[in-house]
TrEMBL record:
Pfam family, one: ActD
Species name: Shiella aurantiaca
Coiled coil: none
Designated name of the protein: DUF3341 domain-containing protein
InterPro entries: ActD (IPR021776)
């Protein structure tokens, strides 16, 4: 969310009403900025029209990097830097590389995914979260609609929200 924007907030009590209301509100031509919920609502991603995340691709790439790094490290240490004869093999014995390669694959996947998630989600340790309605952390579902992105007026958007299950409609600006 950017500073200086004005939002219309629709407050919903029930996740089923929110889910069906989201579909109907989007069909009415309203562009929804985001929906905040105290717990995951199954099917809400599809109702909002979100595309599938590309985070699994990043996880695979981090894992592949860990595998290549682990094998390269073992082959360098055991074959070039400090060669040892293990199991009658002069250069490299692959079975000794498997545990270290596995651990580096898991480590780089995990650390890479944490870093990628924090960057994509804009969660900085020094950042301050902008909460539109504190009740979204307890028991209410909040639908935020950016007024500037919609061609409908505030009153029309408010009526659409109320007709599709919102128990309360508020206006909030981010300063």
């Amino acid at each position: 969310m950017e500073y200086g924007k004005k939002y219309i907030l629709g407050v919903f009590n029930d996740e089923d009403v929110l889910l069906h209301g989201t579909e109907k509100i989007r069909e009415a031509g309203v562009k929804i900025e985001e929906v905040y919920s105290p717990f995951p609502v199954h099917g809400l991603d599809d109702a909002l029209g979100y595309q599938r995340s590309r985070l699994p691709i990043a996880a695979f790439l981090f894992g592949a990097t860990g595998t290549i790094l682990g094998l390269t490290m073992i082959f360098w240490m055991m074959g070039v830097d400090w060669p040892m004869i293990i199991g009658g093999k002069d250069f490299i014995a692959l079975p000794i590389a498997i545990p270290i390669t596995f651990e580096l694959t898991v480590l780089l996947s995990a650390l890479g995914m944490v870093g990628t998630f924090l960057i994509v989600s804009d969660l900085k340790p020094w950042g301050t979260p902008r909460i539109l309605d504190i009740r979204s952390t307890d028991d209410k579902h909040i639908m935020a609609i950016d007024i500037a992105r919609n061609s409908l007026s505030k009153e029309q958007i408010g009526e659409i929200l109320k007709s599709h299950g919102a128990v309360e409609v508020n206006e909030k600006s981010i300063d």
